[in-house]
Design brief:
The protein is an alpha/beta fold. Helices cover about 25% and strands about 25% of the residues. The chain is built from 8 helices and 15 strands. The strands form 4 sheets. The chain has a 9-stranded mixed β-sheet with strand order 8-7-6-5-3-1-11-12-13, with helices on one face. Strands 2-4 form a two-stranded parallel sheet. Helix 3 links the parallel strand 6 and strand 7. Helix 1 packs parallel to helix 2. The longest helix has 20 residues. It is globular and about 55 Å long. The structure holds iron/sulfur cluster (2 copies). The site of one iron/sulfur cluster has 11 residues, from loops.
């Protein structure tokens, strides 16, 4: 079986304080951390037991997970497993990075996001340079807020040329033609992220070859359709993985619409689909 799993455990805290985010500066109790650790360990044990499969794992936490040693250790453990083809995570890149040396580095990748209100460009770029030096694959992203336009341009100029900078559309903002042009020059795929794709009744790989899993093992086709389709820890979970059509009206988030076959984005991203790195340097 070949499966991509978007894992989102109970963790819901962050060391940053982005003002639009519910996890900003949220701290968890000791018991909540224990709960997250137990859920993570159960997931790791499950992956470890799936020696006949090919599994890609993408951690999409509520908050920041890589500042926690248990997630760093999870990368080390998962990347060493022959059945694991990729381990990726969404991160604000604030954690230390020496732990990556314990990983099978060719299998790990980071989806990093720069938050200009929470860290300086210099500090973020220093982390990016460290990832380059440590030979870890990563993408860098920003939200295309109009007030960050100059910062985004400066970031692109200073990032190593081979690093892809993606820009997420701030969908409440109607971009001017000039802004569209400017952002599309930096990220040629930016226009794709400005749309809401009609998806009701359309084919999607979510629920078949890619699933969302929470800390209890509850499987959903994606993060955007809340109806469970099964539980990863049930013996017959594979029976839940079938071809499905989307039941939402639209799909507008990259981690969702990349799995719609009609958009052919698997051809654009290839093996970098989880960490959002296009197969060819198109920027
Ligand atoms: S870094 Fe991410 S998780 Fe943390 S507060 Fe900002 S948006 Fe939220
Ligand atoms: S199109 Fe989007 S919302 Fe619909 S199933 Fe796929 S990922 Fe989920």
């Amino acid at each position: 079986m070949k499966l991509s799993i978007l894992y989102r455990g109970p963790l819901s805290s962050c060391n940053y304080g982005c003002d639009y985010c519910p996890f900003a500066k949220h701290r968890e109790t000791y018991e909540e951390h224990q709960h997250d650790q137990q859920a993570l360990e159960r997931f790791l044990d499950w992956v470890t037991g799936r020696s006949e499969d090919q599994i890609g794992i993408f951690f999409t936490p509520w908050g920041e997970a890589l500042i926690r040693k248990r997630y760093q250790d999870a990368f080390v453990r998962l990347s060493a497993l022959p059945q694991v083809t990729k381990v990726a995570i969404q991160t604000n890149l604030s954690s230390r990075l020496d732990w990556v040396e314990r990983c099978t580095k060719e299998k790990i990748a980071l989806w990093t996001t720069y938050h200009p209100s929470q860290t300086s460009r210099e500090r973020f770029l220093a982390k990016c340079r460290e990832l380059v030096a440590r030979e870890v694959r990563f993408s860098v992203g920003v939200v295309g807020l109009p007030e960050h336009m100059e910062e985004i341009k400066a970031l692109r100029q200073e990032l190593p040329e081979q690093v892809y900078l993606w820009i997420n559309a701030y969908k409440r903002h109607p971009y001017t033609a000039n802004e569209m042009d400017c952002l599309s020059k930096i990220d040629p795929l930016f226009p794709l992220n400005t749309r809401h794709y009609p998806s009701l009744g359309h084919a999607c790989h979510a629920g078949e070859s890619v699933i969302s899993v929470d800390g209890d093992g509850t499987m959903r086709r994606c993060h955007f359709i809340k109806t469970p389709i099964g539980n990863l820890y049930d013996a017959n979970f594979e029976q839940c993985l079938t071809e499905r059509i989307c039941t939402n009206t639209t799909c507008h988030c990259h981690i969702g619409y990349v799995h719609m076959p009609e958009l052919h984005l698997d051809e654009v991203f290839g093996d970098g689909i989880l960490e959002r790195i296009p197969a060819q340097q198109i920027w």
